[in-house]
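Hi support team,

I'm opening this ticket because the web form for multi-chain structure prediction keeps timing out on my end. I have pasted the exact lines I submitted so you can reproduce it. The total is 274 residues across two entries, so I didn't expect it to be a heavy job. Is there a limit I'm missing, or should I split the entries? Thanks in advance, R.K.
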Amino acid sequence: MESNVLYFYALFFAILISASGIIFTPRMYMALISLLCLICFSSLLYLTLNAQYIAIFQLILCGLFLCAYIFILLKKIGRTNLKLKLVSPFKISVSVIVAGVFSALCWLFFKEEFNNSLYDIFNFVIVKSTDVVKFSQHLFPLHIVLLLVFVTAAVLKIFLEKGEQQ
Amino acid sequence: MIEAILNIGLVHYLILVMLLFLTGLLGVLISRNILRTIMSLFSMTISIVISFLTFGFYCDNSLDNANITSIFILTIAVVQAIIALVILYKIYQSNEYLDVEKIKDKEN
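Hello R.K., no limit was hit. The queue was backed up. Here is the completed structure from your submission:
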């Protein structure tokens, strides 16, 4: 296996683990460390995409300033050891379902629109901008987008109504 | 199948972007602490920056457009996070807690 493949997958899992660390770590300072790790690992990922300036920019602006700012704020309000609190299990299951539906719709959208090849994305843009007649080919993904919008609006409405009732 | 896993390309980066965005979305939905919500929002922003840079790298040889757009996105995200933190501090000063549900209850 080539080293760049290993490097990519190491960064892939490191980024995802640090992103989940922000949500699930038991203490607040650990969440802050996870955020810092996420910023560092994503900066390393930018280097694989030849974006050195963005990597340095993000490390300085977010890694140094934003994390330091959050840390100072936490110190000031004395909440560095704040425990993890999640919403009720019902809301967690609803959120997981929403995220699942969202990911399924994203996947369907990509699969249908780009015909299993995301490299066609710029062809898609060119077709949209030049050929008006063939727009009907893209109607099915458009339905998915509309469905996504309605599902999100419905879920938000249910959440808001529940909040008002409580 | 193994070849598809080993040949790193646009799709792999976009899968990472999607998973990172979903993790951030989940964090925004299930976390009761405002600070964690802000951090999750920031991870969603990072996923968007990665998607811009990926498209810039694979579809545009110059990379200038992607870099400039990413700088704008990052700057705005940081400013937005700092404004949110200032608002959070003000909320904390008046309520003494950072729990979204407690704040909602107090408002009701």
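A quick check on our side: Chain A has six helices and no strands. Let us know if the file doesn't open in your viewer.
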